[in-house]
């Protein structure tokens, strides 16, 4: 995915491993950003803000190399800001909104949405695809949804931790739970 669409793609297993590591890096970054948002840190420090360079690179004849370069440079800068406690919740939230725009193009983070009334999972965006969701993961997600409905937040958190340990991330949204398999997991 790093080469221009008109250039030939050279497949190697090393390239696959690099791609897996890049996806894991994005996942780790997203987890850190979401943690800052969840902690509602307000230190008044807004060192880094998302820019338009990703979109500009794609507008330049689909220059995916430049776009991905900006993505990973942004990850590096925001990780540095988080390491130095220079990012507050508002800035982290702005980066999450930016990621949603980026992900709407790259579709690296696909999420399953649990409909609590039917107990069925669908891919976010209504795409129709067969998805193998292990039964134990579906059961844990359903138990967590029921715990939240019963306002048993301690059990809900324990189930979230169990899902995380098994390589799944679950988030609560206005549309219900969103379950995503972490890349590299």
Give a quick set of tags describing it.
single chain; 185 residues; alpha+beta; 54% helix
Reconstruct the topology from this structure.
Blueprint: H1 13-39, H2 53-59, H3 64-83, H4 89-106, E1 112-115, E2 120-123, H5 135-149, H6 153-165, E3 168-173, E4 176-181
Antiparallel strand pairs: 1-2, 1-4, 3-4
User: What are the low-pLDDT stretches, counting only 5+ consecutive residues below 50?
Assistant: 126-130
Give the DSSP E fraction (strand runs of 2 or more residues): 5-15%
Rg of Cα set: 18 Å
Average predicted confidence as pLDDT = 80
Helical amount: 40-55%
Helix count, DSSP H or I runs of 4 or more residues: 6
Q: Biggest sheet, open or closed, and with what strands and sense?
A: 4 strands, antiparallel
Number of strands: 4
The neighbouring-strand order within the major sheet is: 2-1-4-3
Distance between the termini: 20 Å
How do the helices and strands follow one another from N- to C-terminus?
HHHHEEHHEE
The class by helix and strand makeup works out as: alpha+beta
Shape: globular
Question: Would you write up a description of this structure?
Answer:
This protein is α+β, with helices and mostly antiparallel strands. 54% of the residues lie in helices and 11% in strands. Strands 2-1-4-3 form a 4-stranded antiparallel beta sheet. α2 (53-59) packs antiparallel against α3 and α5 packs antiparallel against α6 (153-165).
